[in-house]
Amino acid sequence: MQQRKIDKFSTSLSSLYYYYYYYYYYYYYLGEDNEHRMFRRLSTSALAAAAVRFYTPSEGLKKLYTSDFDKSEFPLSIVPSDSALFAKFLYKAAEPNNGFDAILKDFQTIAAATSSLPIFWERTAVVEDVAEFKKLSEPTFFTLVWMQKNGMLDLIQEVSEIYETYVNAKMKRIVAKIYVAPGKEGDVGEAKRVAQELHKEAKELAGHTLVFKTVVDRSIVTGFAVELAGQYVNRAEGHKTHAPVADEADYTTIPVPRLPKTVWEDNIETEVLSRYLDSLAEYDAEEAKYGV
């Protein structure tokens, strides 16, 4: 009798477990905006564990994180993605105090720090153990931990670009990208003048502040290239190409090779094999002459 009661109790627990499982599945995974729910719920649990182990985020960031910040108003519309979600969080975290430029500087600090980190640092390094990351603003550090706990730290470059796009739209800035050779980052005076001319000629950019962003392009040897609002001016010279020796050879004049006659041992096995190989060679010769 006691065993039956235990079995009955276990069965009821199992039924309750399966009922909860299916309710959880249909509500969170098959409801409205199911993709967003899946991502946010995964992130919430991961970040909660991170907060317990490493640090306690401020109440303001906690409140923002648990809110529907991604459904708020933004300067422009960008296709939803994981990178866009992180960028939106950073934008909303900086919005109350107008601290947009501080986070932009954080991304520069991250780029400088990662150049000294080992390859695939996104998978091996721990954000909390990187000394340079401890100097970042709290929203940026919070977001890095969030991204790492979801295995998405490799999206940091995309997050930086989307966030910068939001800020530039908010501040009415237009970015001119100047591409130069390695070591020529300081020699951009002429390139800036070209960018300023493009800015003046574009009437749709009236009222926008021109800012410059220097990008090192290893394919450039001398000169520069400027990109502004879809316009591209190229005054750069790359490496001169040298035709390899193989490209200079004329393979149409190669003489037909002379194939030596194979000497076989005098027995029945080699005679059969010899005739078979001779027939294959004859077939190959006819195929080369007349085609397939």
Automatic annotation (TrEMBL):
<dbReference type="GO" id="GO:0016020">
    <property type="term" value="C:membrane"/>
</dbReference>
<keyword id="KW-0472">Membrane</keyword>
<protein>
    <submittedName>
        <fullName>Uncharacterized protein</fullName>
    </submittedName>
</protein>
<dbReference type="GO" id="GO:0046933">
    <property type="term" value="F:proton-transporting ATP synthase activity, rotational mechanism"/>
</dbReference>
<keyword id="KW-0066">ATP synthesis</keyword>
<keyword id="KW-0813">Transport</keyword>
<dbReference type="Pfam" id="PF00213">
    <property type="entry name" value="OSCP"/>
</dbReference>
<dbReference type="InterPro" id="IPR000711">
    <property type="entry name" value="ATPase_OSCP/dsu"/>
</dbReference>
<keyword id="KW-0406">Ion transport</keyword>
<keyword id="KW-0375">Hydrogen ion transport</keyword>
